[in-house]
Amino acid sequence: YEQVVECLRPLIANRALMESCPDRSLIGPYVEALQKLGRLDALAREMEAQTGAGSTNSLHWHMLAQCRRAAGDKAGAVACYRKLVEAMPSHAAMRGWIQALDNRQDYEEKVAAYREYFKRFPDARKSDMGLDRLVDLHRRNAQLDRALEAAREYVAISPWYLGTVGEILAAQRKYAEAAEVFRQVAAADAQNRDYYRTRIADMLMAAE
C-alpha cells in the first residue's frame, strides 16, 4: 500500500490533472491505501483544516468526503458534497453527491441531485450517470410513473431507449400501450425485431 500511495501522491498533487478527471477516480484508491496503512485519520484532519480555512481547492472537499465514506460516515460524506456543490459546482461535485446517496434511504434527495445535475449540465443526461440511471432509480423504488416520465424524456434525446418505455408500461399493466410501443421498436430495430415481436405477443395475451 505504501507503493500505491507513493505512486498516486504526485498525481493527486497535480491540480490541473485532477480538475480534468471527471469523477476524481484517483482519490478512492489513494484514500483506501492510506486507510490500510492506518493514516486515514491524519488525512481527514489535514483536509478538515484545509476546508475549515475556506479552501477553494475542490480536491480538498473531495478528499474529505472520501475520508468520511471510508470511515463509514455516509452522512458526513453527503454533507461534504452538498457544500462542494453549493460553493464550487462541477461534474465531479455533482457525481460525488449522487454516488454518496443511498438508493433507497436517500431516494428523494438522490432524485433531486440527479435533476440538479441535469439542470446545471444538460450534457450529463446522456452520460454514464444520466437519465437512464434516474429511470433505474425510480424503478428500484417502485415509482413507475416517475420512471415513465424520465424514460420518455430520455427517448427524446436517445430514441434507442424506447424499448424501456414499453417495459415500464408493461409493468404498469398498460398492455395495449406497451404493445404499440414495442411495435414501434420492432419496426426500427431489425437486430432485435424477433424479441420485440415476442413482447408484442406477450402484451396481447396479457390484455385478454
Describe this structure as you would to a colleague.
The chain is elongated. With 208 residues, the protein is mainly α. It is built from 13 helices and no strands.
Quick structural overview:
The protein is mainly α and 208 residues long. Helices cover 73% and strands 0% of the residues. The chain contains 13 helices and no strands.
Key attributes of the depicted protein:
208 residues; mainly alpha; elongated
Number of helices: 13
Give the overall form.
elongated
Could you tell me the mean pLDDT? Answer: 90
State Rg.
22 Å
Q: H/E order of the elements? A: HHHHHHHHHHHHH
| Beta strand count | 0
* Helix/strand structural class: mainly alpha
The biggest sheet, with number of strands, parallel, antiparallel or mixed sense and barrel status, is:
none
Helix fraction by DSSP (H/I, runs of at least 4)? over 70%
**How widely separated are the two ends?**
62 Å
Portion of residues in beta strands equals under 5%
User: Segments where pLDDT lies below 50 for 5+ residues?
Assistant: none
What's the structural blueprint in terms of helices and strands?
Blueprint: H1 2-13, H2 15-19, H3 27-36, H4 40-52, H5 58-70, H6 74-87, H7 91-100, H8 107-120, H9 131-140, H10 144-155, H11 162-171, H12 175-188, H13 193-207
